[in-house]
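Last lecture ended with a question: if I hand you only a sequence, what can you say about the shape of the protein? Today we answer it with a concrete record. The protein is MaoC family dehydratase N-terminal domain-containing protein. Below, first the input exactly as provided, then the predicted structure, then a couple of comments.
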Amino acid sequence: MAIDRSIIGSRSPEHSVDVERGRLRFFARATGQSDPVYTDPEAAKAAGHRDLPVPPTFLFCLDMDNPDRGRFLADLGVDIRTILHGGQAFEYHAQAYAGDRLTFSTVVEDVYAKRGGALEFIVRATHVTRDGEPVATLTGTVVVRDPKAA
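The predicted structure:
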């Protein structure tokens, strides 16, 4: 299945997420964070933060809260059994905190093929903002395998 390059520039519907302290604490424990700045609001404030800071990769978890996250590939006719995670990159512009409401806006930046079309790559950038101001850019690559290719 060839993915039409005309999807470059297309946007998925925005979604917003409230950053909750409980989820931040859970993530900190799950990822082995021992610094109390990620679990104790008083320690965070003593370190110069206004509340619990959002750990770097937690923004990816928040993006997964998108109620339509599977729709993009379904609309392309991609069978999710043929996809692989091809990469993830993070660029940070500002610190996010518990209590923030973050908005996620995703755009297709590139589509290309390798191995004679056996592997197709879809590169999407998700722009994270708080009150319209940039917080981060998450760039993810999905690889779509052609099940007919050997």
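Comments.
1. The chain has a mean pLDDT of 93.
2. Helices lie at 21-30, 41-46, 58-63, 71-76.
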